[in-house]
Fold:
Amino acid sequence: RWTALTIAAAFYRVRTFGGFQQALGIATNILSSRLSRLTELGIFTRSGQGRAEYRLTEEGLSLFPVIVTLMRWGDRWFCDAPALILSHRSCQQPLVSAMKCDQCGEAIGFADFYY
Structure:
């Protein structure tokens, strides 16, 4: 669970070890382990010494749809109202996550695919 929360915090522009620790309330040994592992996996890149910054890589940024979908799931099933409303920068409208077929554009759900 700390791994997902650490990635989510990075999408809130948390960048430093202290920032992650404060935002998450995570023990420093666990946080150190998670940041090291996420850096090894290429999700984060680490820059600087001492007060290093952790930034999402292209691979990490590609998790954005997953994070948004999890946020919306939590808003629907655990909250009376969304904790945070994301808006599309260019049109200012609320962002709603939806899976769509990249060929025909039709919205898809679990019953709409096969393997």
About this structure: The chain has two domains: 2-61, 64-112. The beta strands are 44-47, 53-56. Residues 2-61 form a domain with the Arc Repressor Mutant, subunit A fold (CATH 1.10.10.10). The longest strand covers residues 44-47.
